[in-house]
Write a structure and sequence with these properties.
5-stranded antiparallel beta sheet, extended, Trigger_fac_C_sf, cell cycle, 3 domains, alpha+beta, 4-stranded antiparallel beta sheet, about 475 residues, Chitinase A, domain 3, cell division
């Protein structure tokens, strides 16, 4: 094998590789010789099949494997001999000439191809001694605990038949209804049901549906006219006007709200005090997670400000494609266009490319820091993460588990966030972090511009694209 470098431009390297026909012939003969002891062919004793006959039967399929193995071996040697750290898998371009390909497959011509390698940039890690961060913390207020318990009580409250002649449904009442929905006079799939319960004012039905049932009487038939939201999950219904013929079968009023030990027992707690302690702990975890998110973002901002180096173009393109795909999906979900956000696709793309570049740059920096610090991910940590993901799909846990077990790429996606959090912990231990007590509103205050750009050098104005899209990006 002979490899000649034909291009060295930034992080991109290109080599012309020649594998002589004689080398291919040797490899093919060796493979066929090993094959003759394994195959069974009528008319020949085991191990006695002539190589010429095997070549006529299996030559092309075996040669395909020989060529693939030769390419893999050649690429590996190029990487090792040139001490390259690849950003992506090598991109191989074979000759287009049919005559050349046929000659290679017959081992009568040299295998000549071009391989393009994109490598990771090299950079020196910076000193973080001067970095100072503020970590926001908030105390859980008793009023918030009480409000949370009250919400739980409302979710668990009972209803009783609303008595009295000609009683009317009011907000907060629970109705049992039958309905038949039509669009342009035609019934549609999923538009009809019987014995459905709806709590007026809960917002669980299409906007406007519940409002039009306020004042209804038991046994009354009403026509409810609504419009499906543009972002409705069923695309064939999104944005369409619909009419529902509703029959009120029963009206129930909510019973008195009881917040006591019996409520706690309904949630598996011994007493109301125990329930409040569990709520306090749960809210505290939410506060801690938010504080962690914000201090992590501040740390990444500090890192981003310290580093500037060339990025592998293909990695940036891949990341940008991921970001842009999320943006488009989010805008479709909201039923919006770039024009609705006061911008255009051409104006928005450069802003989101900056987000992709920042993510790639920080990813490379965190990977380098983690490697230098010898940060490892244990099998137990990965297993726990997969189990946690599987628990999100009740009844399908085994399918999820098998998917990750059989899919190395998916498993790598589980490892990545674990590794990142460990590197962040490692870095936070090296910088000065000062805690600052703030209110809940301050802790959860959203700055759309910073969320959108993740604090990088290219901050995106809120009007230039959907804030929700930016946060997801």
């Amino acid at each position: 094998m002979q490899a000649t470098q034909t291009l060295s431009e930034g992080l991109k390297h290109e080599f012309k590789v020649v594998v002589p026909a004689a080398e291919l012939e040797t490899k093919l003969t060796s493979e066929l010789a090993g094959l003759k002891d394994r195959v069974r062919i009528n008319g020949f004793r085991p191990g006695k099949v002539p190589l010429g006959h095997l070549r006529r039967l299996y030559g092309r399929s075996v040669m395909a494997d020989v060529v693939q193995n030769a390419v893999n071996e050649a690429n590996r040697k190029i990487v090792e001999e040139n001490s390259l750290k690849l950003a992506l898998e090598p991109q191989v371009v074979f000759p287009e000439s049919r005559e050349e390909v046929e000659a290679v497959m017959e081992a009568k011509g040299d295998l000549t191809y071009t391989v393009t390698l994109e490598v990771l940039p090299t950079f020196e890690l910076k000193d973080l001694a001067g970095v100072e961060l503020t970590k926001e913390v908030a105390e859980v207020a008793e009023a918030e605990i009480d409000a949370a318990v009250e919400r739980m009580a409302k979710q668990n409250r009972t209803f009783s038949a609303k008595e009295g002649k000609g009683v009317k449904a009011a907000e907060g009442d629970r109705l049992t209804i039958d309905f038949v929905g039509t669009i342009d006079g035609e019934a549609f799939d999923g538009g009809s049901a019987q014995g459905i319960q709806v709590e007026l004012g809960s917002g669980s039905f299409i906007p406007g549906f519940e409002d039009q049932l306020v004042g209804a009487k038991e046994g009354e038939e009403r026509t409810v006219n609504v419009k499906f939201p543009e972002s409705y999950m069923a695309q064939h219904l999104a944005g369409k006007d619909a009419s529902f013929a509703v029959t009120v079968k029963a009206i129930e009023a909510p019973d008195a709200l009881k917040i006591d030990d019996e409520l706690a027992k309904a949630f598996g707690m011994e007493s109301l005090d125990k329930l409040k302690d569990a709520v306090r702990e749960s809210i505290g975890r939410d506060y801690a997670a938010q504080g962690r998110r914000k201090v992590k973002k501040a740390l990444l901002d500090a890192l981003d400000a310290q580093y500037s180096f060339d990025l592998p173009p293909s990695l940036v393109e891949q990341e940008f494609a991921n970001v842009w795909r999320q943006v488009e999906a989010d805008m479709k979900e909201q039923g919006k266009t770039f024009a609705d956000e006061g911008t255009s696709e051409d104006e928005a793309r450069p802003e989101y490319r900056k987000i992709a570049e920042r993510r790639v740059r920080l990813g490379l920096v965190l990977a380098e820091i983690g490697e230098k610090a010898d940060i490892k991910i244990t099998d137990d940590e990965v297993t726990r993460a997969v189990v946690e993901r599987a628990r999100q799909f009740p009844g399908q846990e085994k399918l999820v588990w098998d998917y990750y077990r059989k899919n190395p790429q998916a498993l790598a996606e589980v490892r990545a966030p674990i590794f990142e959090e460990k590197v962040v912990d490692h870095l936070l231990a090296q910088v000065k972090v000062t805690e600052k007590t703030v209110s809940k509103d301050e802790l959860f205050a959203d700055d759309d511009e910073e969320d959108a750009s993740e604090g990088g050098e290219g901050k995106v104005k809120a009007k230039k694209a959907s804030s929700k899209s930016k946060k997801k990006a």
